């Protein structure tokens, strides 16, 4: 606010109080000053509060020159190719000159190459990841690689840190390269001490797949920045730029499901079958409980006195199915055998096909753990958005994953409802038994709390069906933001 303090409004009035003309002229001047001050303020303040500098509009960005022209997208790790190849896709869309090359361990799993080729995500060259250092060290006619995007920095830095740092120091001042670290988990700390030397050289920036991971890293770097250890304090941690790039590709042939007369009947939990990452046990117990109390609302009937349930064939409404999509093995209760459908090791083509028929995604994050809200980004959230499946999300999840924070694509589950209380209410169109219940036996029903009642009523009114148009508009906004971030990186802007 330097412009304002050097021209105190009081001092100015003392000199120009004489005629109306001066006053008008003065007012105009003051207005200009004020506008100038506000602009200055806007241009400088947001970086401290948001990950990316929102004030730099796309139009403005187009006016700056592209500084990085020879980009390597590289990884030693066999996974997360869907993440870094989406960055390669964005790079190729926004680069006005230069080239991108991909360095990988080999063919992508689950037939992802077919997706890249048939949707035209990337048409550059692929190289063995073992040739990266050689290409960075060697001087080519274009002046060498000047930007290196690492697909999983937690793994890739541990492999390449020393060699790349050596290569960086060996270059002259005019030919230094930048590292863009795609990071996945704030709590994976083994590689993090390596950030220090890159930060000291102002040669690193982070690119997580969701805003919340970036915010947690930013907080962490601010804490580190005030260290009493001079070698850490001097590395300038608080100036490491952090943005987010959301790994969502454009799947052209997603169906436009009818918006009316559908019964909520297919929910999906997507991700590796790992009970330490997802709340399968609680989820199964909840569904089992509800199935025993009100089997007909799920489209089932108890079979004799045993623990089994069978489809109720007397109605022509589809029964509810819970789809588990991923890899590995899970034990499921006998009672749920008819409800649960496993889909393991699908290739991407079949995965997209299956996902696009789902009514909702259940994130199923562990209730007693905030990992996926603060430290790690679940790729499942991006995949559900990518395939147009609405996410059954509590408010905290929407706040963490900014790209799905939109009523057009999210089902807003009040946290007071469990996933299956919410789905049952949506399936039957009736939340009255939920509101009349008193799950903690406190003598106070849920519905007697005015804001809980309001939230549940809003939830029921908003419904669960979301249109393809809604998803398309949210995805377009995400792609634009991805483009803005990558443009900024190519221009060396924080
Ligand atoms: C399912 O629920 C019923 C009724 O509450 C209970 O008796 C049964 O033990 C539950 N099954 C499992 C596997 O938890
Ligand atoms: C994907 O897997 C299915 C089933 O295994 C197979 O029929 C299909 O050809 C595969 N798709 C591609 C594109 O390879």
From TrEMBL:
Ranges annotated as spanning the membrane: 20-38
Keyword match Membrane: yes
Keywords on record: Membrane, Transmembrane, Transmembrane helix
The protein, known as: Glycosyl transferase family 1 domain-containing protein
Origin species: Psilocybe cyanescens
């Amino acid at each position: 606010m330097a412009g304002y303090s050097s021209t105190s409004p009081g001092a100015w009035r003392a000199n120009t109080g004489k005629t109306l003309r001066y006053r008008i002229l003065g007012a105009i001047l003051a207005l200009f000053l004020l506008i100038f001050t506000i602009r200055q303020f806007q241009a400088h303040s947001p970086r401290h509060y948001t990950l990316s500098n929102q004030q730099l509009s796309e139009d403005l960005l187009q006016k700056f020159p592209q500084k990085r022209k020879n980009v390597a997208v590289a990884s030693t790790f066999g996974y997360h190719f869907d993440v870094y190849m989406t960055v390669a896709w964005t790079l190729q869309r926004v680069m006005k000159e230069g080239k991108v090359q991909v360095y990988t361990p080999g063919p992508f799993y689950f037939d992802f190459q077919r997706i890249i080729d048939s949707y035209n995500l990337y048409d550059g060259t692929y190289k063995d990841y073992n040739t990266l250092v050689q290409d960075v060290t060697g001087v080519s006619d274009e002046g060498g690689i000047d930007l290196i995007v690492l697909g999983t920095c937690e793994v890739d830095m541990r492999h390449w840190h020393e060699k790349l740092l050596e290569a960086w120091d060996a270059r002259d001042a005019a030919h230094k390269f930048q590292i863009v670290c795609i990071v996945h988990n704030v709590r994976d700390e083994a590689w993090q001490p390596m950030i220090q030397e890159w930060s000291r050289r102002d040669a690193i920036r982070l690119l997580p797949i969701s805003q919340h991971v970036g915010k947690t890293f930013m907080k962490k770097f601010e804490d580190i920045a005030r260290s009493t250890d001079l070698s850490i304090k001097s590395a300038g941690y608080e100036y490491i730029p952090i943005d987010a790039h959301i790994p969502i590709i454009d799947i052209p042939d997603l169906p436009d499901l009818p918006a009316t007369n559908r019964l909520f009947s297919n929910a999906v939990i997507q991700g590796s079958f790992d009970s330490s990452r997802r709340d399968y046990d609680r989820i199964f117990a909840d569904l089992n409980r509800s199935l025993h109390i009100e089997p007909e609302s799920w489209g089932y009937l108890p079979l004799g006195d045993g623990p089994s349930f069978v489809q109720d064939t007397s109605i022509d409404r589809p029964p509810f199915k819970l789809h588990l999509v991923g890899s590995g093995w899970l034990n499921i209760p006998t009672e749920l055998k008819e409800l649960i459908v496993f889909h393991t090791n699908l290739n991407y083509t079949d995965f997209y096909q299956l996902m696009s028929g789902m009514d909702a995604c259940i994130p199923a994050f562990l209730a007693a753990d905030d990992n996926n809200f603060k430290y790690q980004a679940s790729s499942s959230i991006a995949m559900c958005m990518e395939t147009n499946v609405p996410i059954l999300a509590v408010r905290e999840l929407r706040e963490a994953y900014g790209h799905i924070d939109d009523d057009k694509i999210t089902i807003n589950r009040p946290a007071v409802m469990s996933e299956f209380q919410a789905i049952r209410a949506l399936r039957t169109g009736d939340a009255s038994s939920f509101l009349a219940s008193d799950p903690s036996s406190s003598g106070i029903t849920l519905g007697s709390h005015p804001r809980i009642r309001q939230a549940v009523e809003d939830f029921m009114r908003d419904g669960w069906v979301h249109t393809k148009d809604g998803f398309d508009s949210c995805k377009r906004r995400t792609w634009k933001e991805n483009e803005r971030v990558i443009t900024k990186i190519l221009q060396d802007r924080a």
